[in-house]
Amino acid sequence: MIKLKTVVYGITYFIGFIGFLSVSGHVSPTYSAIFLIMFFAGLFTDWKGKKPLPRWALNLLSLTAVASLFFRISAENVVLPVVETLLLLLGIKLLEDKEFRDFMQIYTISVFLLTGSALLSIDISFMLFFTVMFFSVVVAVVLLTYYSQDRELAVERDTFRKIVLSAVLIPSLALPLTGFFFILLPRTQQPLFNLIPAEKSTTGFSDSISIGDVSQIQESNETALRIKTDRKLNSEAYIRAVVLNFFDGKTWKRIRPAGREEKAVNLKGRIKYTVILEPTGSRYLPALELPLGLDGVRHRKEKDFVFSAAERIYRRVKYTAISYSGGKPFVKPVNLPFYTQLPYGIDERIVKLAESLKGKTVRETVNKVVSYLKENYSYSLQDLPVSEDPLSQFLFEVKKGNCEYFASAGAVLLRLNGIPTRLVAGYKGVVYNRIGDYYIVPQKYAHTWIEVNIDGYWERYDPTAGSPSQILSKGEKSLAERLRLIMDALEYAYINSIINFDFQKQVKVVRSTVSFLSGFRSLFEYLKFAFPYIAIGLAVSIGVVLALRELTESRSRKVLRKFLKKLEKKGYKKKENQGLEEFVLSIPDGQVREKALRFVRIFESYYYRDREIDRATYRILLGIVNDI
Amino acid sequence: MEVKHPQIKRIIQELSRFLQGKEEALRLSLITFFSRGHLLIEDLPGLGKTTLAIGLARITGLSFGRIQATSDLLPSDIIGVSIYNKETGKFEFHKGPIFNNIVLVDEINRATPKTQSALLEAMGEKQITVEGETYKLPEPFFVIATQNPVEQYGTFPLPESQMDRFMMKISIGYPSREAEREILKGGSKREELYSIQPIMDRQQVLKMQEEAEKVYLSDKVIEYILDIAEATRSSKYFSAGLSIRGTLAIAKTGKTNAYFSGRDYVIPEDIKSLLPYTVPHRVVLHEIYENTDHQEIVLSVLEKIPVPA
To answer: Domain check: are B221 and B293 in the same one?
Structure first.
């Protein structure tokens, strides 16, 4: 006869030891020593059948171990502290008086340790540990099921062999498949869990725009920025990112604006708002026209109302800004040579065209140029002119292009007429996200327009035939689009709650907390940082527990639990020594009693007949519970 | 618990005309009867024990025998004797009063231990062996024994091992004031009792006993019964806990109780509500607690046992 208890305990300690062995090369000797002491203490106390340490003390110890994890973890070093903590938890578990779940926990932690070892380094020994662990855990779980039914169960040698053999069959079949998938599935070079936010691909505006550049952005569905304001925004609002003032024939560039300081005039339509900008890789901080002030990011305001951050933007930033929708930059006298600069060797045809569009006044010329462009050219993102002289090709051959072609054509034609003109790049149009109550500016709304100086006032003209937002927003109400809005709202909520704390910074805070624990401030900072994580962790674990309960609990237990909970809410709590009917009949409220009795009668007819409740009855019972 | 079984309900209705306000005692007696057990009534004289026994016999259409136990009662007075028949030249067995379906043994504690054990043996085996011949007792066989708790002089109290043979021990108790008023107004109804028309016959009784036996007893409820047994066996108050016969009795009466309530499965309440009648007479208190209320202690121990639900 073989006593299952002995086998289960033996195999459990074996699994725990394998878990330890797999990581023993990586963890610090202190942890190894602590674990080994606990391991042998557990083995000894189990052997003697005495468990001197009470469960609550061990639980407290486990909590301390987990809490200490917070102080040791860092962005560069995540896995090792976790592994070490797991090792401590395993030791504590071994010390405990073991119930079914404790055995399962020991197996789980051991498997986690093995997984952790794979994250630290992977070599052939992993395969060995993995195989041994796999077989022993499966066998252990099968034996454990028998053991949990009867603690003192002893089986014949033959029966025992049969049980073990059938248990071994499972991993024997699974392992070859595992091997197959191991080879088949692509293995990544990159770490799977990258906690540090990676740099986003940069799609923003740089100091220069080669004609046709924006078209790449304009096909991107990604969000460029989000605007939160309590005002209603015009869906055609212009967002200013950067002013380009130098043209070399193919590329518009930004050079340090010369001339006097520009003032903002016609200050109407004040609006204050918050911008969450996705990483762009450039310095410019987009803001609604016409931005006057900005706060939240270290920046410099330039003469032409361009706000450039002190550092290039490689991660999300959040800032507030104030704009005046009616505002115009004003400067007198304007730096004429600077804003009428043109490269040498402009195509003769362009010069002739510019002459033909000259009006009597500056304003007339501007209107003529803008309407000429709007009427004779069409908007397109495909088959854009690309050659040595893209502008001539656009004006005289292809006759279609995106906003950059229109704007630069307009600017060149006006500059040829001696009118100071500059290019403004930014976005046109916003999408209101009803779910999150904020505005999204997608990358595809990127736009370019011109500013013309008339009598000292910089006035906005948009020579583009049709705006990108109008052209591109046809499919807006489709299901996919709506889904995208929901996803974006979720992301927005996520960003909003943690944007000020990127992981590196948080780890720094924790470190400083550890070194200056006396400092109240840093402790507070730490709590401020830790709270969302603890909350998320708690929520997740509660969710998992509930889901597990939901999944594993039988229908009758589930519905009974709900029933008793409902009555408890009403103030009636069933005593342990009360039968259901007895309890229900003791309810003074007649209506509740009747309903509860109806539930109990149906429930009992299944429960005490040892029958599982079918789906239909379950629904009926749930209905009664809800009705109570 | 409410009785829903139509025939049982009728029996109780009919008999409560003669035993005003004693429906509970009637119900318990019927549970014992349909569980094929025997009943011990511990009560003062003149509270309706005989009425109960006769009424039960009449209404089920079964034969009735009565034994008045005295100290000179001999086993043969109960079982019967073999008498020499001159004509045939053989001994002939003359059956005693125990060869009836329902037997009332009045004041069983007055009989000598020898007679008591002869009776109790017959109850347990449901057959009698006299001079090498075995005689089966009739089916159904139901003994109602009564015991007078007050008079102690010249009595032989039943030892615990003998008490165990009774499925339930109940007492009828004094009637309520209203009930007694009704009794006084109506006068004795003994004559009327003998004229009750049976509402079922032997076959039906046997069939109902069988049906009660078939009531489903869930593992959960079995666990509950085992918990009860465990509690009595490990309690510091008792020197002897429930016997196997005791747990069987709990299960059987629970089934019949469920059957009476119109269910074909046992719920814990079926068991729980009968515990005051099925357990106390089976457990033996330690000497130091002997002077305390027996039933009280037993119930205080059983009260704490969690009910499966």
So the answer is: yes
